Amino acid sequence: MCLDKTNLMDPESIVAYDVALARALASVPRKRSFVVSPTVIRLHSYIVIRDRPCKVIDMSTSKTGCRSTKAHFVAIDIFTGKKMETVSCTKRAMEAPVVTAAEYTVINVDESILSLLTDDGESKEDVNLPSGPLGKTMAADFAAGKELRVTVYNALGEEQVMSCVEVIQPRSR
Questions:
Q1: What's the DSSP call for residue 95?
Q2: What are the domain boundaries of the chain?
Q3: Class (C level, CATH) for 100-166
Q4: Where is the Translation initiation factor 5A C-terminal domain (predicted)?
Q5: Do the beta carbons of residue 53 and residue 46 sit within 8 Å?
């Protein structure tokens, strides 16, 4: 799982977030999201804003009245990089995506579709070549005969290549 945690998070929130994630994964193996209280969400946790998986980069709380507290979250869409904001009552549940990362070896680049190989030897051919500089670099490196390894994030049914590295073969003596 890709759950980044920093020293700024208190242990109770980490445990509550991880317990909610574990319950969601145990109940349905291919679950796309789970429900979490806004009070356990901390910096670098994942939340869903406008049906998009986002990583929290800033948050604050404020008392708006005698009975309610509001939580304000600023987050970045993990696939587009777009900044998003939401405000939620701390008594109301929020949705958090299940974000997974997997590494694959690139076996072919066919126009805009990647052919990938899992560590188990199975092929995967449903991931698009990323647009922008990462995709251009990948296509050029693959055409030059370099062996590439990619990291693919999956959240809310969407997959995207997030990074690519060249595999360096050890020298034989």
A1: E
A2: 11-97, 100-166
A3: mainly beta
A4: 98-165
A5: yes
Judge whether residue 118 has pLDDT over 80: yes
Residue type, 172: S
Q: Cβ distance 153 to 101 under 8 Å? A: yes
**DSSP β-bridge partners for residue 13:** none
Q: Name the CATH code of domain 11-97 (choices 3.40.50.1360, 2.30.22.10, 1.10.238.10, 2.30.30.30).
A: 2.30.30.30
Give the pair of three-digit tokens for residue 25: 């994964």
Residue 79 structure tokens = 């696939």
Burial class (CB in 10 A: 0-12, 13-18, 19+), 116: buried
pTM score: 0.76
Instruction: Give the model confidence (pLDDT) of 77-100 as tens digits.
Output: 999 999 999 999 888 899 999 999
CA 86 from centroid of its chain's CA atoms? 18
